[in-house]
Design goal:
Layout: H1 3-13, H2 18-25, H3 29-37, H4 44-53, H5 58-67, H6 85-97, E1 103-106, E2 112-115, H7 117-127, H8 136-141, H9 153-167, H10 175-185, E3 209-213, E4 216-226, H11 233-237, E5 239-245, H12 248-259
Antiparallel strand pairs: 1-2, 1-5, 3-4, 4-5
């Protein structure tokens, strides 16, 4: 696709008129119109400027640049790469300090890329076997995942789908994530109405997730953290989710689970 229609697409996503985009970017509305229609070829700096005003995710900014005939501007590093060493150290510190409670790091597709021992032990307890780096959406929605052990599954699962929309990078579902959402919504027992964004959104200030298996019960709520001012695609797309106990019974159960050999 050419860069003009892509800019027009993101302008539509952000609900901005050509005039509003031009005003924010301090360029003429005519120039924006010509770029979108293909009558003018934007410079590299202009693509970066418009993408910044539109708050386009870094991955998609690279796509805009490539569509305009330029090289990507933003790195896409592996998490273990030397240039992300400081990020890795920060993640390790957060995960370690959160013990004995679960904490995980998710990528853009809701895959667990790393987790602390509290999270690994909880997943292993629920699944009855060691589990490494599951996909959270599949684990929560599939009948053979952790779904049977979530006491308040319907409330949590419906809220989770709404979170997918709210917390997707740039507040937009990409093709891969859209396909994943369609997959999990097609699993047995998933209400069709959940496919509609914001349907039946809970008015509760927090929604705890309650796990139970083999006489053990855990009730957690979670917080989500992102990295500030990232300039790497991978770094921008990471989310750190830390689970906190809602009661003393969960605190004791988490400490007991952490002490198991």
């Amino acid at each position: 696709m050419q860069v003009g229609p892509l800019i027009a697409y993101w302008r539509g996503v952000r609900r901005m008129s050509q005039l509003a985009l031009a005003t924010e970017a301090d360029v003429s509305p005519r120039h924006v119109s010509f770029i979108e229609s293909g009558r003018a070829k934007p410079s590299r700096d202009m693509v970066i400027l418009l993408a910044g005003v539109l708050d386009v995710p870094l991955r998609e900014r690279n796509r805009l640049l490539q569509a305009a005939g330029f090289a990507s501007a933003y790195r896409h590093s592996e998490l273990g790469a030397p240039q992300l060493a400081a990020v890795q150290h920060a993640l390790d510190a957060i995960l370690t300090q959160h013990m004995p409670y679960p904490a995980i790091v998710l990528d853009r597709g809701w895959n667990v890329v790393t987790a602390n021992d509290g999270a690994r032990r909880l997943f292993s307890l629920l699944r009855g076997e060691p589990v490494e780096n599951p996909n959270i959406l599949r684990a929560m929605f599939h009948p053979d995942g952790v779904r049977p052990y979530v006491v308040n599954w319907e409330l949590v699962a419906e809220s989770l789908i709404q979170r997918v929309h709210r917390e997707s990078v740039g507040a937009v579902l990409d093709d891969d994530l859209r396909a994943l959402v369609a997959e999990v919504l097609a699993y047995p027992g998933v209400p069709a109405k959940w496919a509609r964004p914001d349907h039946g959104a809970s008015l509760l200030p927090i929604i705890p997730i309650e796990f139970a298996r083999d006489g053990r019960r855990f009730s957690y709520f979670s917080t989500v953290t992102t990295l500030g001012t990232p300039i790497d695609v991978t770094a921008q797309e990471l989310r750190i989710e830390c689970f906190f106990p809602t009661d003393d019974a969960t605190r004791r159960a988490a400490i007991e689970l952490a002490s198991c050999s």
